[in-house]
Amino acid sequence: MDGAKETGLRNVSSTCSISESDDYDLSRLLDKPRLNIERQRSFDERSLGELSIGLTRGAHDNYETTHSPGWRSGFNTPASSARNSFEPHPMVADAWEALRRSLVYFKGQPVGTIAAYDHASEEVLNYDQVFVRDFVPSALAFLMNGEPEIVKNFLVKTLHLQGWEKRIDRFKLGEGAMPASFKVLHDPVRKSDTIIADFGESAIGRVAPVDSGFWWIILLRAYTKSTGDLSLAETPECQKGMRLILTLCLSEGFDTFPTLLCADGCSMIDRRMGIYGCPIEIQALFFMALRCALSMLKHDAEGKECIERIVKRLHALSYHMRSYFWLDFQQLNDIYRYKTEEYSHTAVNKFNVIPDSIPDWVFDFMPTRGGYFIGNVSPARMDFRWFCLGNCIAILSSLATPEQSMAIMDLIEARWDELVGEMPLKIAYPAIESHEWRIVTGCDPKNTRWSYHNGGSWPVLLWLLTAACIKTGRPQIARRAIDLAETRLLKDGWPEYYDGKLGRYVGKQARKYQTWSIAGYLVAKMMMEDPSHLGMISLEEDKQMKPLIKRSSSWTC
């Protein structure tokens, strides 16, 4: 693959600040043509209640053209350097060179980055493919560096793949399903390129990637915010693509809760790890994708119906997650004192969780100040494990209230050794081991304790932590984590993950020059240098979605 010659950062300019979020004023845009209009309240500052009222009055076709956060010059902008006293680390140039080496071309145009560029590995497996979730940090790096065409090509190409017929054995997948990955095959004889997509039929366990569609919507919004280019999101193809993805999630069934029911291995944790049910990662991405789609869908006949369903689901989902998935010291104490076998609508212990099922580790892990969204909630089952990606996305999407967001940051600081250690960042905590490992993972030799998805440390998560830290006004946490990463990442060859309780050892099966480890580092560095980049992947809280949460009292005095 031909990499671009330029390995540094472009000099580009920024046009707005971190506070500028999706501008979306229904009453002002009703029945008016799209214009370049002055800034009004953003959609993120408006409530879903207002939007629901607005939908009854009529429809409009476009959202505002203000874009955010624009592009800065990377690491040598005089203004930003003076503001943050931020000097480029020697790793930055190496990271950009490695990222450009990973570019994949289709008919001469870059359409993504391969998962890993590790020539030392004998087994390629599917690491030479472009993964939708893996490309997200690469895309953000290119957007922040003023190179949006690569991202646009990726969005268009994966949207085209969505339209393919998808079958596993004799079963046809839903029309809106997005691929987990795709591979470009070059034929030097015929001088032609061919794309092969994987929708789960080749994946280990044959599980379709639930998160791919959500990441696609989130990335489309990031592209739109970064460039100010509404034309891509407004195309009939993108509008249909968003509706198809959300139709898969919003269809009515036997669900009694607004969360999405998923199979094990349907997300970044793509092997059996006991996350079946309603994993926090999927619920947080679902919430964020719904909010991003809400800001981009047109209010035509088809779009309006989808928007109405999104608004209702967002209200229900935010209440459910904030009420039942949230755990802090007080809530843990309440669950510990739960009564069981409660019947009728007056039940407080609604999921009939048996207090004796609470694992011993969580009592010591929970600080007096701090909290987090637990891994899973379903009938008679609560997965108390910490999952980094889901909690960071909860902060960025404002699924977490401002108070909950600060509590998550408090937890990370209080439990630094457990969640960060010597290499950021634990994908899950704690590891499962012994008999539980045999039952939950099926004796998976890759997910042994403190390795890979089972308590391994993943450098890619650095960009999510950094974004969450900036949004909550705690950049010092991100700086500390970045400093840790810089002591090892380049020297170790940009590994996919690290093993051990403290993340001290390069993972036993970790690929080197893992693209999203490289891109995650670059995105974290660029956001620290220019925090306005956060606007691409952050949504402000909607005040109308904040429920009044009362502490449970399911115990006898």
UniProtKB/TrEMBL annotation:
One GO MF term: endo-alpha-N-acetylgalactosaminidase activity
EC number: 3.2.1.26
Gene Ontology BP terms: sucrose catabolic process
Catalytic activity: Hydrolysis of terminal non-reducing beta-D-fructofuranoside residues in beta-D-fructofuranosides
Enzyme class: hydrolase
Keywords noted in UniProt: Carbohydrate metabolism, Glycosidase, Hydrolase
Family statement drawn from the similarity comment of this UniProt entry: Belongs to the glycosyl hydrolase 100 family.
Reported function: Invertase that cleaves sucrose into glucose and fructose.
Protein name in UniProt: Alkaline/neutral invertase
